[in-house]
Amino acid sequence: MTDPKDFEWLGGLIQTTDTLFPSGGYAHSYGLEEMVALNKVQSREDLEDFLIQQILPGLEKLELPYVRYSLEAVEKNDLDELVKINEEISAWKLTREVREAGSSQGAQLLRMILEIYQCPISEQFKQLLQEKGDPCQQITANALLRNVQGAPLTSSLVAWIYQTVSNFCSASIKLLRLGELACQKIIHRCLDAENIRRLLSNSLKVPREKAGFFNPLLDLASARHELAFSRLFIS
What we know:
The chain is an all-alpha fold. It is built from 11 helices and no strands. It has helices at residues 10-17, 32-37, 44-75, 79-91, 96-117, 120-132, 138-149, 153-175, 180-190, 193-203, 216-226. The protein is globular. It starts with 9 loop residues before the first helix and ends in a 9-residue tail after the last helix.
């Protein structure tokens, strides 16, 4: 049998990316609901193109680099730096709905970490945020989780890609009436080997001062969603 350290993190990674894990993602469409209302995403093909052309590039240039920066800060036990990263993440979420979605899921994830893992680093981070009056963003909470699980960087990044894509697909079941098979095909295409290699390779090259991605259409959709007459999702 191989060294348990080679795989003992895997169970926790699977558990916390599973849809049964209460991350709060089911309540959010991440702008997709308004994109559907604006007739920008109307079919399985539209959704796949939206994910590959708009969401994956945003992961590559912004979210995946910040997942990495957060993990590096936690590994160094530099919680002051993690607080700064948390502030930056809040700042580049341009609409209130997106910021509140990130902080809502971050707070829920941080509670779960403290309940399941009794992680002292996470408790210290929570206290630092409370002193500053800042909410915990999902990306920084995710870094605390992967650190206490001992998950490797590459696996943590792939898990973030999967969670992002699957959240959109989950929302599409209600919004576009897509079946589970159609959603799994989309997830499979987004996670194929070529996409994963490109996303990981390019994201690892992004220095902090260069990290960024601007998607005005999705930001406008998120802003409009807040004032929608009726809606199925919080964001």
